[in-house]
Write a structure and sequence with these properties.
One of its GO terms (molecular function) is transmembrane transporter activity. It holds the Pfam family OpuAC. Keywords: Signal. The protein has 16 helices and 10 strands. It is an alpha/beta fold and 332 residues long. Strand 1, helix 2 and strand 2 form a beta-alpha-beta unit. Helix 2 crosses helix 14 and helix 2 packs across helix 16. The two termini are 42 Å apart.
């Protein structure tokens, strides 16, 4: 009788898709920017089809999601948190057992820099350095004053505006003939890069990665020759009252996946997957460009990524898990 009941239980479990070893319901924050919604959809598909989870996306944003994870223990996973602005609070939550750091979702972290088009560096490699840029300032023609050179900065009100303003002073770019130009908006900043690229004109300005723009247009980060002084960057370069800014490159912006501690303890295999999977900025730039060009949402972009990049995502998984994901993709 006991054997019969056990057999029935196993059959019922198999039929519903929730055998004892399955992971149950998992909630994933679907943040409101392109890279985050793409990664959330990738996690949902892999957790659902590879690990047998009932994976669900829930709307999210950085601060509300993190607060909810700390206070309510939901959602289970935040796939992409840019942590610079509230690292102390996250460290405290980890120390108190509310959250766990799963892994570095952007292998290189978020990048910020001054950039020039690659076609310029191909012609003159010195333009990959700030000294080369200053020595060739007349190439970067100001749109309204041919006697001045143009550095395209951040739109007013953006956090990066203070940083660019301070670095403009630290690098003594005004002395080299440059004027710092406010592009007015994100669209204005993007448009200035696109126009320069289409005409193969000189361009110097601020941008960040991962982004669709850097996936479409091949740009080179300008090296200040200074390295990174993170302490000064945080204490002065980012401040409005920075009286004597020093030259420093932008420090890496840490971008991690976090889970609740409950999830990390109860789902060790799934947590290991989250700790393993990561993306380079170059790969993600191209994916974001594909999303923009094809007006694709996170789900469509996820299908494109998984179908076109099996060698990448399968390396995050045990062979039997990867096989289940591949089989599910074949049925789409």
């Amino acid at each position: 009788m006991k054997k019969s009941l056990a057999a029935v239980a196993l059959m019922l479990a198999a039929s519903t898709g929730f055998a004892a070893e399955d992971c149950g319901k998992v909630t994933i924050a679907d943040m409101n920017w392109s890279s985050a919604t793409l990664i959330a959809n990738i996690d949902r598909f892999i957790l659902e089809h590879g690990f047998g989870c009932a994976a669900e996306l829930v709307p999210g944003d950085t601060m509300p999601t993190t607060t909810s994870m700390m206070e309510k223990r939901e959602p289970d996973i935040a796939p992409e948190l840019w942590t610079n602005s509230f690292q102390a609070a996250l460290d405290k939550a980890v120390a108190e057992g509310q959250l766990q750091v799963a892994g570095k979702v952007l292998s290189e972290g978020g990048e910020e820099a001054l950039w020039v088009p690659k076609y310029m560096v191909d012609k003159d490699p010195s333009l990959a350095t700030i000294e080369g840029v200053k020595a060739n300032a007349k190439l970067f023609i100001h749109p309204e004053d041919p006697d001045r050179s143009a550095l395209i900065g951040c739109p007013a009100g953006w956090g990066c505006q203070l940083v660019v303003n301070n670095l403009y002073r630290a690098l003594k770019l005004e002395d080299a003939g440059f004027e710092l130009i406010d592009p007015g908006s994100a669209a204005g900043l993007d448009g200035s890069i696109a126009r320069a690229y289409e005409r193969e004109e000189a361009w110097l300005g601020y941008y960040w990665a991962p982004t669709a723009i850097l996936g479409k247009y091949d740009m080179v980060k300008v090296d200040f020759g200074s390295g990174v002084d993170k302490e000064h960057f945080l204490s002065c370069t980012t401040k409005e009252d920075c009286l004597e800014p020093k030259v420093t490159m932008w420090p890496e912006s840490p971008v991690y996946s976090y889970t609740t501690s409950d999830f990390a303890k109860s789902h060790p295999k799934e947590f290991e997957y989250l700790a393993t999977r990561s993306f380079s900025n170059g790969d993600l730039n191209k994916l974001l460009a594909w999303m923009e060009d094809n007006q694709a949402d996170g789900e469509i972009a996820m299908e494109h990524y998984l179908m076109e990049n099996e060698s990448s995502w399968s390396a995050w998984l045990e062979p039997e898990v990867a096989a289940k994901v591949k089989d599910a993709l074949g049925k789409l």
